[in-house]
Amino acid sequence: MAPHDALDTDIVLSIHPHHVANIISRTKDHEFRRYMLPWTVRRLWIYETRPVSAIRYVAIISGAKSPGQLGRDNLSGLRNAEFESGELTEAGLAKFAYKILELHQLMPNLPLEEAKSMQWLKGPPQKYNFAKRQMVEDLEETLVKVFPLDKDSDDEKGRALMVQGSLD
User: Fold this and answer.
1) Burial 69-84 (b: 16+ CB within 10 A, else e)
2) Are 12 and 30 in contact (CB under 8 A)?
3) For residue 1, how many C-alpha atoms fall within 13 Å in the half-sphere facing its CB?
């Protein structure tokens, strides 16, 4: 459960710059984790690790999927086939997948030192941090869409609309 000054729909998550580049290029269309994110989470505020050390992107995601749940139409993304077959789980690398439905860029980026001075972060997220309500409210207006929602899925559209409605 999120602290009283945080949103349960938004988390700040650390991702290495190499993986962020693959998300931007849409080579990587799922975020894989060893642990399940809270079921309420619909947006990832992506803290890009060193050398960038800043929150640069926000991804709207699907709910958690386990191996065998991606489906044949979702196997082309980076490591999707390995996840679907259970190889990533067997190797201890990932138990859950979250489809990246939309990606937005923060304009300008939020450097770690600034996030710390605003008391939105204490340091780089080790697992994840729930996003502070004030951070989300202050930064939402600076988001610029990089790529759109997956138009083929009504379920995915509903999840994205739910996130938008939760902040109104």
Assistant:
1) ebeeebeebbbbebbb
2) no
3) 2
- pLDDT tens-digit readout, 87-129: 999 999 999 999 999 999 999 999 999 999 999 999 999 999 9
Helix (H) or strand (E) holding 31: strand 30-33
Quick one: which of 34, 5, 19 has its CA closest to 103?
19
Are 37 and 164 contacting, i.e. CB atoms less than 8 angstroms apart? Answer: no
Distance CA 47, CA 111 (A): 9
Residue at token pair 């600076």: 142
CA distance 32 to 65: 9
Angle at alpha carbon of residue 110, lines to 105 and 116, rounded to 5°: 150
Give CA separation, 160 vs 17, 23, 64, in Å.
25, 18, 14
What is this structure's pTM?
0.86
| Whole-number Å distance between alpha carbons of 46 and 128 | 10
Decide: helix, strand or coil at residue 77: coil
